[in-house]
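Minutes, project check-in
Item: structure for the 299-residue chain
Input as provided by the requester:
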Amino acid sequence: MEIRGLKYFLAIAREGSITNAANSLHLTQPTLTRQIQDLEKELGHKLLIRGKYKISLTPEGMMLRKRAEEILDMVEKTEAEFKSITDTINGDIYIGSGETESMKYIAEVIKELQIQYPDIKYHIYSGNAEDVTEKLDKGLLDFGVLIQPIDLTKYDYITIPDKDIWGVIMRKDSPLADKEFITIKDLIDVPIIASRQMSKKYSADSGFLDWFGESFDKLNIAATYNLVYNAAIMVKAKIGYAITLAGLVNTEGSDLCFKPLYPKLESGLDVVWKKYQVFSPASKIFINKLKTKLQNYNN
C-alpha cells in the first residue's frame, strides 16, 4: 500500500467527488480512478459508493479513512523529526491533555524553551484519557497530561505536584449558589451533568464511588460531557449542575459560579509517555526541562 494511494483516497473522501479530487490533486480523472481501483483490488474491498451526485464511503472505506489519516499523520511527524536532526534544535512536540489547570506547568516550560529554542513548535491536543492514550499508543503524540486514575503500566511518567479539586459549576441564581460547599445531600435530587470520571467504569478509582457511597446509584445524571466548555453551556441553559474540576470555567462576570465538594475530593495528574520511547532532540529537551521544573516544585 503506497502513501500516494492513501492521499488520493482521502482527497476523494474529502471532496465527495472524483472530479473535484482530481482537480485538487492536479490529476486526470482516469488516472485517479485507476489509482483507487488498484487500492480496492489490493485491499480486497470496495471503498466507494458512486452516487448520482456524490461519492460516499462503504463501511470499509470509513475504516480506511480513519487509518489513512493516522498513517499520514505519522508520516508527517516522522519526516519532521528527521528534518529536526540538525545542529539547530527545532522540530515539533505533540502533547495531549485532559482539561486541567495544571497545564500551567507545561505552559511555563514551553515559554522558557521558546527563548532558548525558538524553532521548536508545540501542538496541543485536548481530549479525555481515552482520546489521548489512543493517540499516544499510536505514536501520534509525544506526551500526555492525564488526570488520575490512569493505567500507567505501559508508560513512563512524572507526577505533577498539584492536585485538582472537584466541585460543581452552577448558575448564580440556582438554589445552591449561596452555599460555601456542596455536599452529597445537595446533589441527590438535582439533575447532574457528569464528567467521564463519574461513569461506573471509572468512579471507584477516581474516588467518586467512595465519596457518594450508597447514594451514587440515586444520582439523576441528566447529561454527560468530556470537555467542560460544553458542560458550562448546558449549565447556562439550566439543564443541570456540572461536576468538574476547579479553575476550568472562568466564572468572573458570568452567570455561573463554582462551589467545591465537601468532604474535599481531589485528583492527581501525571505527564506520561510510552516506555522505551526514542525522543527527538526537541522532545528530549522538553521532558528534561519539565522533570527539572517539577523536581524543583517538589523540593
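Outcome recorded: The domain at 163-266 is CATH 3.40.190.10 (D-Maltodextrin-Binding Protein; domain 2).
No further action items on this chain.
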